[in-house]
Structures are given as structure tokens and as C-alpha cells.
Amino acid sequence: MKARKRFGQHFLEPVWARKLVEAIQPAPTDTFLEIGPGRGALTRPLAESGARIVAVEIDRDLAAGLAADAPPNVTLVTGDFLELDVLPILLGLMPQEPARQAALRSAGPRTPAAGPGARVRVVGNLPYNVSSPILFRLLELQHERELFIDATLMLQQEVADRIAAPPGSRASGALSIFLQIEADVTRLLSLPPGAFRPAPKVRSAVLRLVFRPPAVSIRDTALFQAMVRRLFMGRRKTALNALRPFAATLGASAEAALAAAGIRPIRRPETLQLTELARLAEFFSSARRPSVL
User: pTM of the entire structure?
Assistant: First the structure.
């Protein structure tokens, strides 16, 4: 089956799929969410471990082809991961009693969805054109329910470099900030264009995100994300100038916020550490006008 450009498809060659599965080290007790299984290059070797797999494929033809000979421990879901509610599907496969499953479905934010002994892991060869929205969706699910243990994802190398960049470095950006609050990021593999068919024009890299409790306390996630995005829109400006438009929307003072956070106004947004960003967000959470954001 030919790759479809509109879905950003580049199929992983079997030899590289095996290397990736070796790095993942699946166990029979694992439950995997696979995003974009394609022809099943990762799905089948992961299934050989005995792990349960929920594979979400947007391409109906590919999904039908994979479903035709999928092992019994693979559940194929046809649809767009960005629009699907995967929680009920995953909970249905996890080794938990029905009463707990029902409680989790109706639970509030930050309620762990993975009970004792359950492991929910993510794997995917992400289309380059929607990798950032997929990562934000994973973060949303993780923040709401602490659903995942880890995620092993194939990305364009340039994107992977930005995600892995430590806070305070020039390559750091909004996405890397959001991810590194919730997870430790490590690089597993670097892949040449020839690892795929058709070969992309760029190199790829595999990152592992190991989720953990947040590195800093964020009272208002929506406010924090809006603030960080605004700051990095003006990453070459001083922190004071980059922060002023955001502060103005809240009826607050950028100068006062930076002073409260102990940040020199002439610093660049890209130099700010997670703890400093958290202190800024805490100031704005306390100082904002009612009904803003």
C-alpha cells in the first residue's frame, strides 16, 4: 500500500523497527497505545511480547489491512488520535476491577488512571506535520489523568532536538518547557532517511519521555501555557518586553511580575528556568482580574 502524503506517511523499515522494539523492551504486563501503526512494523513485534496494544490509525485502508491479520492482543481503532477519547478503550484493556474502571471514568483531574500493576505506554512513528499537536494531546491526557508511564516517539530530528533542549538553552521553546515539566526526556536513536519508505528529506530521532510528578507546581495550567507561549513569541526580546502584552491582558504589571519572581528584566525568555517560569505564573494567577482567561 502506497504512502499517502496528506497523512505524512513514511513507513519504518523492519530492521529499524526491531531496533526500536529492543529499546522499548515491552513486557507482557504492558498496555500500549500506538499512534499511527501504519503497516504494523512496530505493532507486530510489540504484540509478540504478549503486551496489549491499542493501535489508532487514521488511514482506513491501512487500518483494514492491519486488522485482517492482527493478533488477538491488538485492538485496532480507526480514527484521528487528536479527536478520539482513548481513555475508555485503554481502561477496558487494563487489569482493573470494573468498579475502579467506572470510578476512573468519572474522576476529576489528576486522578491516576493506571492502577497497581498496570502500565500504559505510548509508542508511535509520528507524522511530522502533526507531531506537535499529538504531543500536546498526550500532555493533556497525562495532566488530567496521569495515564502514561512513558512514551517512545519517532520525530523529525529538528523537533526532537528542540524537545530535548534543557530549559535556559537557545533551542528551548514552549513545547520543550511543557513536556519537561511532566517528563524526563532522553534520546534513544537517530535514524537516516533510508530507514523509511518512502525516504523523507530529513533525519529522524527517537525520544523517550518518562512521565513523573510535575517538576514545578503550576496552579493554573491554562494561564501558565498562555504565558509561556507569549514569552517565546518574543524570545529574542528582553523578558520585560516579551511579557508586557500578556501582563496587559490580565491588568497586571510585567515589571512587578519579574520583580516578584526575582528575574532581571533584561534577560531573554529563552534563558528562564522552569522554577522562574512557575514563579511568574504564580504572580499572574494571584494578580489577574476576575473572568480573565
Answer: 0.84
